[in-house]
């Protein structure tokens, strides 16, 4: 593998890891999925209300709201970080191949 390509892929993977570790919790908190629970009056509260109405008064386990709240409360798992890093590396590889063909 070309050393320049390896560096680009490494940078893409590192960027993906940073986005997963830092960006996702920030975005979840901004929309109302916080470590203390769903923030009153937030977008997340509206989403939770709609989910509860649709499910007869409770939010279903495993639903989008439940998964986002779990991520907001506990942070992003290593698996999610690895997945986002992989997407970053794949994107960097794709960009390097497109750039090389020009």
TrEMBL record:
<dbReference type="InterPro" id="IPR038213">
    <property type="entry name" value="IFI6/IFI27-like_sf"/>
</dbReference>
<dbReference type="GO" id="GO:0001836">
    <property type="term" value="P:release of cytochrome c from mitochondria"/>
</dbReference>
<keyword id="KW-0472">Membrane</keyword>
<comment type="similarity">
    <text>Belongs to the IFI6/IFI27 family.</text>
</comment>
<feature type="transmembrane region" description="Helical">
    <location>
        <begin position="74"/>
        <end position="95"/>
    </location>
</feature>
<dbReference type="GO" id="GO:0031966">
    <property type="term" value="C:mitochondrial membrane"/>
</dbReference>
<feature type="transmembrane region" description="Helical">
    <location>
        <begin position="43"/>
        <end position="68"/>
    </location>
</feature>
<dbReference type="Pfam" id="PF06140">
    <property type="entry name" value="Ifi-6-16"/>
</dbReference>
<dbReference type="GO" id="GO:0097193">
    <property type="term" value="P:intrinsic apoptotic signaling pathway"/>
</dbReference>
<keyword id="KW-1133">Transmembrane helix</keyword>
<feature type="transmembrane region" description="Helical">
    <location>
        <begin position="6"/>
        <end position="31"/>
    </location>
</feature>
<keyword id="KW-0812">Transmembrane</keyword>
<protein>
    <submittedName>
        <fullName>Interferon alpha-inducible protein 27-like protein 2A</fullName>
    </submittedName>
</protein>
<dbReference type="InterPro" id="IPR009311">
    <property type="entry name" value="IFI6/IFI27-like"/>
</dbReference>
């Amino acid at each position: 593998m070309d050393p320049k390509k390896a560096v680009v892929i490494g940078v893409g993977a590192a960027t993906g890891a940073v986005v997963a570790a830092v960006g996702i919790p920030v975005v979840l908190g901004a929309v109302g999925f916080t470590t203390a629970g769903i923030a009153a009056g937030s977008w997340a509260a509206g989403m939770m209300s709609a989910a509860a109405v649709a499910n007869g008064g409770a939010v279903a386990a495993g639903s989008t709201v439940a998964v986002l709240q779990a991520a907001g409360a506990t942070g992003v798992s290593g698996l999610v970080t690895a997945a986002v890093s992989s997407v970053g590396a794949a994107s960097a590889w794709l960009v390097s191949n497109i750039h090389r063909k020009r």
